[in-house]
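input
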Amino acid sequence: MRPALKLIGFGILMMAGCAPVPAPPERPALALLLTETKFLPRDDYTGADTPEDLKPLQEAVNKAIDDIRAMPEPLDEVAVRGRLSRLLKDTDLFATEDRDEVGRYAIRTWRAAGFKDESGLFRVADDRVLNLRWL
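output
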């Protein structure tokens, strides 16, 4: 092959590698959940156990939501469940009430992603986790 053709071929390959990466899908339900202020007192939840826990808890949940929003279409249940499982594992050392709240956010994220089936994240039904009340 002549040197000029090699150079042109190389240029075409370089340009192919510079193609713009498509933007992730909008996923408005996940975007709305992302804007929510998390781990503040409400109903039976008293808020983050300590003021120092608030930011890392919020960041962990928001990062999981962002990661799921960035996944390609169609969303894969196994990949989403895996990311939410990692969220639960990453927040396992926080106070029990905060871990419960993370679990509720995980299920809300699952549903906001558009899944109708049970998440399989817990040994009980998702609705029971969402409505968990300690007596």
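quick obs: The chain has six helices and no strands.
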